[in-house]
Each structure stands twice: as structure tokens, then as C-alpha cells.
Amino acid sequence: MTKSKPTVEISATEHKATIAREARRVTSYDVALVAGVSQSAVSRCFKPGASVSKSTYARVMKAASLLDYIPNAAARSLITRRSNMVAVIITNQANLYYPELLAELSQQLTARGKRVLLFTLARETDVDRVLADVWQFQVDGVIAAARLTDLHIAEFERRHMPLVLFNRTLRERAVNTVTCDHLEAGRMLVSRLAAAGHRRFGIIAGTEDSTVANERRRGACERLAELGLPPPVVVPGQSDYRSGGAGLKAIIEQMGRVPDAIICGSDVMAIGCLDCARHELGIDVPGRLSVAGFDAVEPSNWLSYNLTTLRQPMPKMATAAADLLCAVIDRHESQAERRVFSAQFIEGATARLTPVPTPVVATSGGMRALVAIM
Amino acid sequence: MTKSKPTVEISATEHKATIAREARRVTSYDVALVAGVSQSAVSRCFKPGASVSKSTYARVMKAASLLDYIPNAAARSLITRRSNMVAVIITNQANLYYPELLAELSQQLTARGKRVLLFTLARETDVDRVLADVWQFQVDGVIAAARLTDLHIAEFERRHMPLVLFNRTLRERAVNTVTCDHLEAGRMLVSRLAAAGHRRFGIIAGTEDSTVANERRRGACERLAELGLPPPVVVPGQSDYRSGGAGLKAIIEQMGRVPDAIICGSDVMAIGCLDCARHELGIDVPGRLSVAGFDAVEPSNWLSYNLTTLRQPMPKMATAAADLLCAVIDRHESQAERRVFSAQFIEGATARLTPVPTPVVATSGGMRALVAIM
DNA sequence: TTGTATGCGTTATCAC
DNA sequence: GTGATAACGCATACAA
Questions:
Q1: Which of A212, B56, B73, B141 could form a disulfide with A136 if both were Cys (CB 3.0 to 4.6 A apart)?
Q2: pLDDT tens across A221-245, in order?
Q3: Are B227 and B372 in contact (CB under 8 A)?
């Protein structure tokens, strides 16, 4: 009986002690030793769909669990050239205003076997600094909700790094993007407001470098021009609450009167504008002034606001971004694709959306606008 | 002239083409070849504080930049046993309500040379599933803003994985924690409200498994009992906006009248409660009813609300968590430490904080409470 | 199905 | 200061 099979448990405990003494990690080789098989057999047991006999599998798994063995992803990625990590580059701003974006992305990517390595930017211009890290960490791909320049994109191509831009576009290059049609959203909003007879518009824009807010503004201005309405008074904003109130005052000052409608580059500014109008200036909204925003952030549908706004279909967009990226990573689809989603109009109650039942006099301008869009 | 030194540039371009043809990554060996040095020399050039001559350094860096070489973090971590990645485990809930937490953590950890690998939980109970991944990815440490059981903690210890709990505690084990003193916050709030003469309290609790909301409730109840005030009517909530309104109605129904004050487990519920009181039930706040919350989320200080609440010092707490974790990782500090921060009282305008200038009759109960806390 | 041998790209150790 | 060489922990081609 010299060849009596060593009890797995005893060997495992002993071996575990040895490993602890040597202060090293548990490796597949250790498991192999305890299970009495080769290291490659262990490796195969942890690869789904590999050919292993039932008995070997059982022995290996038992040993692995006794030793608390977990495969080392770093070593694996070294040889498979897959880290199963995806970098998400997002500005603090974006994360603050759309927390659900990160949650959805994380959820969707996890469902596809990828983990999120987070890169946050204090400013949009910090991209260069984080990109260096992105290359180091050998991520399988990148989802960027930040402004990348043509040069950045070129580097992605040079390094064959799959990339999906989220709510950013770049005309110069063919690149995968997932966006909401902010231009269309801006136009849609103006159409609805104009149809209700609004003529004098004010616009509180987002920060200079916010492409999203810029597109919205551009869409609104375009549509206003098409309808033959007077050009809006546009004032700058920082996309925050304060900018809403400040913007409202600036518009009134510049216009010399309260406008018919104010379009804000984001809901938070719209809420700031609304609060300022109602609680500071005593302006009746929507009686005397209509206020509308974009995004449909959570507070926008609270009773105190019930904001007229346009919703980006974030969950769908996040899913699309994850799909697109994984298609490139897993199936090497190199054709650039753009997935564009439409914003959904939320009526709310801060904008008058039907024409005033004109008593006697209608301004000819108002009527013209009404006709123009019909 | 057979030994003429090959021009670096030409060699680099050639070599780059070779690498591209072989469809492999650029390695330190490639750089060494182009720079005309050994692979170890290249490695040293990328290790801060290593001993390399100026000229070698320059040659290597030039070659590296020509080849677009970036060290492979996976290979590095394999041998250094440092991934420079930190796992952040956070519930979707928490991320939705405190987006600044993740931003701050990311910021602070980046400043310390660590990257955030994100693990989001749909439910607090999903911890088990993500922990398996955490082990795989060889992170250097974990910051967990999720409920871990005693068993989980045991596994962290077994694997020698540095851990910092964020806003969660565990009495059974000595573990690093960063928390806000929610019990104290609950007590503080009751003290202030009681001092103003409030006697009949309602409490809208958070979800069953929210330790944070539970602590707050416990603190409030404790203090009420100490002050000899009647026990509050406690109703459950989901920490969301809807729960605020629903909770208010439930309390009124259960109490048979409008309470003097309602304490909500979170600001969002407080805002829901406030909106319901004012816009649905027409209750004057703070005239007839005081409403208070916790967290000082952004909307809480908007003009429409100006909520009475208590702020958690998130930036400080995030910094503390990063500090604590890095101390364990880098300096192997094994002594468990608890860093507890106090909440800051924000007066706001939704709770009456001074006694009613009693005309003639003061309820003896109210007076007793007043005396008790002085 | 299983084991042997090799390589992934780096850092660390040691001579020189 | 520099270069050879051995790890690190795993996956895979290949032979058995």
C-alpha cells in the first residue's frame, strides 16, 4: 500500500501553510500539485468549454476551493491579450448630472463580461493626461464621454484601440458614436413653442466647450430663423443652477423686457431659471414666461417643477454604446457606425404649449409663425 | 565604415513595420533594439529613480516615442504584485444619490497613483457575485460602499486584501471604516426640533437594508425618548421621491392628524414629503409642519426647497477613505482604524427652529422638552 | 483527455 | 551604469 493516494485535504492544508510561509500567491501550479494533475489541466478547468473529464474537473475544483484559488487576471491577459476591462472616460460634470449613465454602462458592460476602469476628468481638457494611463492599463476598449480631438482619435487608430464616443461627434474622422440628436431636440422644442405663439426667445447656453449644449442652441436658432422669428437673445451659462437665474436676469436686461420663452441648455439651468423667475422676480411661469430645458433629470419631474423638457434615452444609449464597443472588441467590426437616438418631448407644465385663445388682437408676427410651422 | 552606427530613425520605422506585420504589441525589447541598449535598460528608464545615464535615457526615450511604446501594466503587475487599481464597490442607489462620492474617490485615488475599477450593485445583496471578480482582477485594495457580511470580511482577511468600508460598519470585526456619524446626526436633528417645541414626530425611514437610514432613525428615536417626548410614528420608505409623499400621508393617517415635524431618512424623501405637503395637501411648511432630511444633496438648497438638513462632508470622507486605503496598501498599516465625521447642520427653511412666541398657553409637554435639552 | 514545453512583457537580481 | 537571466502566473500548441 505504498502507492496509497494521498488524501487531498491533508495535502491541501499542508500546501496552504507552505504558500503562506513563502508569502506568495496561490497559483494554478499549487492547485495542480494538490489535485495531482498538471498545471495545464487546472488552466483548462477554468476555461469554459475546454475539454476536461468530469473526474479531473471535480478534483481540480475541490483543490482550488480548498486553496482559495482564483485565476490571476493579469497573467491571463498577458497571454490572451484581453484584459476584460473597458475604460470609461467621463467628465465630472457629466457624472454629476447623469449619474445613471455610469450605472447603466457599468451594468451593460458587466453583462458582457467587461469591467469598467473609470477615468474622470476635472476638465474636458485633461484628456491627454488620462489617455497615457488608458494605454498602460491594456483595456480592451474605451467609451469616452469627453471631448477628444482629431489627434486623440488618430492615436486610438494607431494603437488599434476600439473606441466609442458618447454624445460627442467628430466630423473629421469615421468613428463609432452613440449620440442623442441634440440639434433635432433644439429644433423640436422651438417648433412646439413657436406653434404656441411664442415669439421672443431667450437662450441660456451651456459652457463654451459643451458640444451637447451647443448643438441644442444651434438647433433652436436654426429653427427660429426658418420660422422667420426674431433672433433669440443668447447668454452664456455654466450648466449649473446658478447660471439659470443669472441667465434669466441677463436676458431680461439685454432684451429690455421679459421674453416669451427661455430655452436652457440643461434642466439644471432651467430649474435655476424657473426658481429665479418665480421666487425672486415674481414672474408667472408659464403664464407670462415659458421655461424649458433638456435631459429630464430626476428633479425635473418633481411637483415643484414639472419641467417642460426633452429626455435623452440614457438606458438605450448606454446599451448601444456597450453593444457597439463589444462588437468591435469581440468581432473586430471595423466599420465605423453612428447610432443616433431621438429625444423624447416631455410636456411638463413650465411652458405654454397651446396658442393663447386670442381675445381680439393677435400680433401679426405671432400669426405668421403659427402659419409657418403648419 | 562597416561599424557605422545605424540611424535610430530609420531603424525605428523599419522595426515598426515589422511589428505591425507580425501583429504584436510594441515591447520594451523592441525599444531596446531600436535604441541599441539592453531590454533591462529600457525597463529602468521607465522606473522613476532608477540609475540610468543621461545619454541612455535620451536614446531610449527617443526610440520609445518613435515606436509609441507604453509599458504594459499587466506584465508589470505580474511581477511587482501591484496593479495600481483599486476596486470601488458601490450600490446603484448610492451612486445615483451621491454622484460626487465616486467623482471624489476617483479624483483622490488618481492623485495617489491608483485607478478605480468600478463594481456597481443593483442590490446590496449582489456582493457575492462581484467579489469573485474583485479577486480575479488583482486590485491592490477595495473601498466598499455596500453592505458586507462578516463572512465577506473574513475572506478579505484571508486574502490579505486591504479594505475600507464607506458609511458601513461591522461590529463583529476590526475593519477600517470611514463613516459619518448618522446616529449623532439623528440625535442632533431631534434636539434642534424639540428645542423649537416640536412634540409629535413622524419618521419616514429608508429601505430596510439601508444601514445609514437606520442609524439616523435610531438616533432620532433615542433622543426623543431621552427628552421624554412621545414615540414617533415611523413608516417605511424606499429612499426615493415617491416615498416622501406616500410616507407623509401614511403618517397623517396613522397619527390621525398632521404631526409637528417629519424626519426623513434622506433628502430626496424629504423633498417628496415637502412637495406633497405643499402642493397636494396644502399644508404650510414650516408654518404647520416642519420637514427635515439628511445629506444636503444639490437640490436641497434650491430656492423651491431650501431644505433643513444635515450634510455629510463627502469630499473629506472620500479623502479619508483614499488615505486610509493607501496607508494599508503602501505602508502595510494593519491596525484597523475608524474615521468618523460629524454631519453639519444646515438650517434651511423647511423646519421651524425657534420656539413659537407662545401667546398664552404652552403645552406642558413642550415646556418639559425645552427644559430637558437645556 | 492529458501532460510537456513555451511564451506573454515586464521587473528584479545579480554579476560585470 | 549596464546587460544577462530568472521569475511572475497563466494559456496554448503539440505530442502522447
A1: B73
A2: 999 999 999 999 999 999 999 999 9
A3: yes
Of B110, B116, B275, nearest to A303 by CB-CB distance is B275
Q: Are strands B344-346 and B309-311 parallel, antiparallel or unpaired?
A: antiparallel
Question: Looking at the predicted structure, is the pLDDT value of residue A15 above 70?
Answer: yes
Task: Spell out the domains of chain B, with CATH numbers in brackets.
Answer: 12-79 (1.10.260.40), 83-180+315-343 (3.40.50.2300), 182-311 (3.40.50.2300)
**Helix residue ranges per DSSP H, B199-290:** 211-226, 241-255, 267-275
pLDDT at residue B366 in the model: 42
How far apart, in whole angstroms, are the C-alpha atoms of residue A109 and residue A104? 8
d(CA B47, CA B69): 14
Q: Does the nearest atom of strand C lie within 7 Å of B154's Cβ? A: no
**The pTM is what?**
0.90
Q: How far apart are CA A113 and CA B152, in angstroms?
A: 23
Kindly give, in sequence order, each residue whose CB lies less than 8 Å from that of residue A316, ignoring residues fewer than 6 positions away. A341
A-interface mutation test, from B102, B134, B241, B305, most A Cβ less than 10 A away: B102
Span B180-199, pLDDT tens digits: 999 999 999 999 999 999 99
Q: What's the average model confidence in pLDDT over A339-363?
A: 84
Query: Are A74 and B74 a contacting pair at CB < 8 A?
Result: yes
User: pLDDT by residue (tens digit) across A52-96?
Assistant: 999 999 999 999 999 999 999 999 999 999 999 999 999 988 888
Residue A190 to residues A196, A197, B196, B226: CA-CA distances in angstroms?
Answer: 10, 10, 50, 59
| Residue A170 grid coordinates | 467628430
Which pLDDT score is estimated for B348? 96
- Kindly determine whether residue B120 and residue A136, on different chains, have CB atoms separated by under 8 Å: no
C-alpha cell read off for A5? 493516494
